[in-house]
Fold each of these.
Amino acid sequence: MENSKTKITAEVGKQEIFIIREFDAKPELVFQAHTEPDLLVQWMGLENHTMEIATLENKNFGAWRFIHTDESGNSFGFNGVIHETDFAKRIIRTFEFEGLPEKGHVSLEFLNFEALPNDRTKLTTQVIFKSIEDRDAMIQSGMEHGVVDSYNKLDNLLSKR
Amino acid sequence: MENSKTKITAEVGKQEIFIIREFDAKPELVFQAHTEPDLLVQWMGLENHTMEIATLENKNFGAWRFIHTDESGNSFGFNGVIHETDFAKRIIRTFEFEGLPEKGHVSLEFLNFEALPNDRTKLTTQVIFKSIEDRDAMIQSGMEHGVVDSYNKLDNLLSKR
C-alpha cells in the first residue's frame, strides 16, 4: 500500500506492519504533535471525525485513551499504556481498540522519530500484533485511510508552526 | 524445546514464542503466585538466583520492575507495564531486559490462565517480539533454563498451599 506520501508495508506471513512517512518539520515539532493534547486533537483520526482525549499521561508507564466520533455520533474508543517515551526520538506503547467483540487483542507500537537534512523528519511506526489475523483485521478495518487522512492533517498543522 | 512439563514453541520465521505449562492448582492460586510479591519472590528466576521486586502495581496500566541477582552478586533488571490484569484469567504486559546494549527491544506478553478438570491450570504464555532476531536472542540467552527452573519452584510452592 502506498499513498503519495505514506508507505505502509505488511509482509505476507508476518504479524507486523511498518508505516513510513516524512514530514517537513523537525523531530521536536512532530513529536510534540503526538504528545500535546491541544495539537493531537487537530490531526489524529479520519477527516470527518472529531477526537477527544480522555487520558494522556506522557511519561513512561503512563496510560492513554482516545475517543473518535463520526458525523453520526458513533464513538470509537482506543486505549493503551506507554512503555517508553523519549522526547523527539521514540514512543513505545500498547494499543487496543475497545470496539472488538473480545478483549485482549492488544498490539505494541514503536514510533521512531529520525532527523533528516533540511529540518525534516522521518517517522517510522512499527506495529506488532498478537497474530497475523489480528494484523490483517486491522488493515481490513480501513487503517490505511485513517493513517493517510491523519498525516495529511498533520502536514497542514506543521506548516502553520 | 520440551522439558518433561514445560513446552516452549518457537516456529521458524515467526517473531513469537509460546510457553505451555500445567500446574496442579486452581487458576486463582496460580494467578496469585504471579501477582502477590511475597509469593512471586519464592519461585521466579533461576534456581541459584534471588529476586527482588522493585515495583509491582497489580492493576491495568501499572508498572513493574524485578531484579534478579546471581550467587556472585551480579544483578539483572527487567521492567515493563501492565496493559491488562484480569484475576485468575489473564495478564497482558510489556517486558524489557535492562542489560541489553540498546534500549527499545521491548516485547509484549500474554499470560492466559485456563481452568482444567481436577482443580488444575493450564498456563499459556505468548510473547511477541520486535523481530525474529530479538526472539532468537532471548532464546539463546538461556530463557528455557529460567522458565523451567521457575516453574519447578512454582510447583513446589503450590503444593504447600
Note: The mean pLDDT of chain A is 95.
Amino acid sequence: MSRFSFRRTAQCGAARLGRMHTAHGAVDTPAFMPVGTQGTVKAVTTEELRRCGAQIVLSNTYHLYLRPGHEVVAELGGLHRFMNWPGPILTDSGGFQVFSLADLRRVDDEGVRFQSHVDGSSHVLTPEKSMEVQTALGSDIAMVLDECPPGPATREQIAAAVDRTTHWARRCREVYSGPGVAFGIVQGGPFLDLREQSVREITELDFPGYAVGGVSVGEPGPTISPTVRRTAAMLPEDRPRYLMGVGKPADLVQAVDAGIDLFDCVMPTRNARNGTLFTSHGRVNIKRNEYRSDPRPLDENCPCEACTHYSRGYLRHLFLAGEILAARLHTIHNLTYYLSLMERMRWAIAASRFAELRDELLGRLATREEQS
Amino acid sequence: MSRFSFRRTAQCGAARLGRMHTAHGAVDTPAFMPVGTQGTVKAVTTEELRRCGAQIVLSNTYHLYLRPGHEVVAELGGLHRFMNWPGPILTDSGGFQVFSLADLRRVDDEGVRFQSHVDGSSHVLTPEKSMEVQTALGSDIAMVLDECPPGPATREQIAAAVDRTTHWARRCREVYSGPGVAFGIVQGGPFLDLREQSVREITELDFPGYAVGGVSVGEPGPTISPTVRRTAAMLPEDRPRYLMGVGKPADLVQAVDAGIDLFDCVMPTRNARNGTLFTSHGRVNIKRNEYRSDPRPLDENCPCEACTHYSRGYLRHLFLAGEILAARLHTIHNLTYYLSLMERMRWAIAASRFAELRDELLGRLATREEQS
C-alpha cells in the first residue's frame, strides 16, 4: 500500500467529501483530529477514541521531543505502538508550541532557539530537526516547520514569516524521508496578497496536502474570515486542506463550507475537563446548581457512555468532587459531539444537502453560543 | 429473593470459602471491596471494576452525606443507579471518617458533633442518622456506627469505646429498616479481654455479619496481630467476617488464614495514583529511570488492560507527564492484582491447598516488601 493518497468522492458547493489513505488506515474527510499532546488524548484511552468515532489523532512534536524524547518513543516502537493507537497519526512540527509555550525564543533563518518549559534546557528547532523528530515518532502525516508570529503582528512581520515559511518548507521537503508524508503550511495572516504569495510558493513544492496556518483562534467572533475562505479556495482541489487549531463547532461548519477537510482543536477535550459540555441543546456548564438533582442524561440525543449511563446530577457531583471520572466522561461526551458533527456533515455532503445542514447548524449554534 | 444470606462452601484450616447473597447479587468470599469514596472508585468506571474482578464495592457515607448529600443520591434513584453499579454495595457508617477527617469533633453518648472538611458546616452523626443516611443511599450492607479512637489510645479510652460501640450498635439495630442489612462492629483495640467483651455484646444483638474494627492500618509490621486472629475466631462461624480497612497483600493472606471473609482498603487505588504498582515481581515504582525505554509490560503475568496494551516506558511517561491515563491504567492494574489475589485464595481453599498457597505468597511478599 502506498504511503498516502487522497480522493474526493463528492462535493456540495465548496464542501468536499473525501477519503484519505495513510500507511495506518483510512480517514473519511472532513475529519476532526482529537489532540493527544503528550502521547495520549487527555483522560481517554485509544479504544475509547475509536468508540467516539475518531479515525485519526494529532500529537505534538514539541511535547514528545522534550518528554520522553523522540529517541525513547522510537526505541519503544514508534508513537503508534507507544500510545496503542494503530490508526493514522498526524504530528505538528513543534513550531507552534515553541512560539507559544517555550521561553527565550530567538528565531533566525536557521531555526528557533528556545528553552524547554519543562526543565529550562536549551534547544534548537530547525526544519531538519523537526523532520527528524517526526520521522522518529513515525507520523503518517508530518507537518513542515513554519513561522507563525504569535499574537498581533505587523504586515512586515507577517511578510517575513511567509518568506521564512517557504524557505523552511523547501528544506523540510528536501530532507524528509520518513515513513509517511509531509504537508506544507500556508501563512500570510489576514493579508490576502500574502496568502496568495504563500499558496503559490508552497504549492510549487508539491506537497500531498496543505494546511492553512496562522489563523487566530480563541478570539471572539468568527474564526473563518473571508481571507481564510479565499485561501482555502486557492489550494489545489486534489489535495487535503487542513485548518490548524480550529475550532468551535460553528467554525467547523463554516470551514467545511469553505472546502476545508481536516481540523484539530483542544476545545472539546479542554472544555470537558473544565466542565463545559457541548450538547444538542447548547453548551452546558455542568457545575450549575440546577443540575444538582437532575436525573436526565446530559444529552438525550447522544449515544456516548456518559449520556447512556449517568445523570446530570452524577456528572455534576463528580466534577465538583474533583473526580477523575468527570474528566473521562466529559471528554468522551465532547469528543462524541465533535466527531458526530463531522459525521453529519459528511452524510450531508454525500446526500447533496450540505447547505441545508449548514444553515440549520449555524442557526442553532449561534443561538446557543449566546446562551453560554 | 431475601435481602441477605451467607453460606460457607468450603474450609481449609481457618480459611473459609463462602458465598454472600445480597439484593443486588452474589459475592464470592473471601472478597476484596474496592473503595469508591465519593460514589466512584477513583479513576475507573464500574464496567472496568467488573472487568478487574470486583463483585462488591464500598462507598463512604461521610463523603456522600456531605457531598452531594444523601437526599440528592436518593432523588437520583439511590447509590446503585447514581454511580451505575448494579452489584452489591457496602457503606461504612461515616464514623471512621468523622474521627479521621472532620474538624472539631466532640463525642458523647448521643453521637459525634463535627465540622465538614469540605465547607466547615456543623453536623451531628448519631447511630440513627448513620442508619438514615445509609438507608437513603440504598446500601446492601450498612455498617453500624462505632467509636473508633483514632491513633494511640489508653486501655481506659478503648474500654469506653467498646461500651459506647455496643450502646450505639443496639440503637442502630433498632432503627435500621433499610433495603439491605446492617453489620455489627467489634472494637477492643489490642486487648483480648475487651475484644472478647465486645464480641459477646455485639453478637448478642444478632447481626447477619460482623466486622473487626479498630485495627491499626498503615503502620509498619504485621497488621494481623494475634489479637485480631483470635477475635476473628470468636465470631460466629455462620456469619461473614469483615476486617475493616485492611490492607497490604500480605495482610490479606494472613487475614484469610485467620478466617476473615471481607476486606476493603484504599491501598491499591491510592498507590496506583502515586505510581506504586503491585506486580508478581514485587512492588514497582514506575517513575524510576530504569523503566524509561523498557518495552516490557508492567507484569507479563497480568491480563489487565495496562499490561496487555502498554509498555513500562509508556506508563512511566504518562505518570511523569501527569496524565490522567496513568491514574486510570495504574488503578486497573492494582485492582486486578488485588482481586486476582483473592481469586487465587478462593481457588486454593476450594482445592484444600490454602496452606501451601499462603506459605508461597507470604514468602514471596516478604521478600518483595523488603525490595520496595
Note: Residues 279 and 299 of chain A are 6 Å apart (CA to CA).
Amino acid sequence: MLSNDKLGAERENFLLPLPVSYLNAFEAITRDPNQELTIVEQEQEIVATFQLTFIPYLTYQGSTRAQIEAVRVKSDYRGQGLGTEIFQYAIQRSKDKGAHLLQLTTDKKRPEAKKFYESLGFVDSHEGMKLYL
Amino acid sequence: MLSNDKLGAERENFLLPLPVSYLNAFEAITRDPNQELTIVEQEQEIVATFQLTFIPYLTYQGSTRAQIEAVRVKSDYRGQGLGTEIFQYAIQRSKDKGAHLLQLTTDKKRPEAKKFYESLGFVDSHEGMKLYL
C-alpha cells in the first residue's frame, strides 16, 4: 500500500524479500510506547494502515500532541468511508491518550487529501516544512 | 520564553509555582529516549530552547524522521545568529541519529519564521494541519 501511490511509488521498494530496513523500522515502532502503527483488516484482507505518534511538549502548559502519518487506504477500498472511520478512531484514541491536538502534514501535491482533512475539521494554519538530510 | 511570544502569551501560564502540568510534561520528555529537549545557555543565562523528536516510520523503506518544535530564543538574544547555530546543531544531531529528514511546522502567522527556515534550506512542500480536540 505504501508503494501503490503516486508519491510512494518513487520512494518504496516492495520486492520480496523486503529490505531489512523495513523490518528494523517495524521493530523500532513496536518498541516505542509512543508509536501506534495500526492495520485495518476487512474479511482477512489488509485494507488500510496508519501511524499515530504521541509527543509530550512543554508548550500549552505541558501537553501531549498526537500526530498521524503514513495513512494509506488500499485503492479499491477508497470512497467507502474507511478514511473517515480511521480518523474517527484516531481522534478518539488521541483524546483517550490525553492529547489536546491531533496534527498532520499533507503534501501540497495531494489537494484531494487536504480537502478530506478539512472536511474532518482540520485547519491548514501551519506550513509543513521539510529539509532532506 | 514560551510565554514571551505573541502566540505563546495566550496559551502559557508562567506564574510561580508553575502548574504541575509543566513538570509532568518535562518528566514525560525526559523518560522518552526519542525526545531531546535542549536548553542553550550563555554566561549562565538560559537564552534558547528547542525540542527534537525522532520518529521511526515504515515509509521511505523504513526510516527515521527528526522533527523540531518549540524553538524559542530569548527576545534580547535574537538577530545574533543563535537560531542558525541551533539549526546547525539540530541538523547534525538528526544526521547522527540516522534521520533522512528534518521536519517542522510553522504558524502561518509567523511569516518571518518561514523566511528564516527557507534560508536554511527547508521547503514548504506540505500543509501543516491541526485539529484541536
Note: The CA atoms of residues 43 and 77 of chain B lie 12 Å apart.
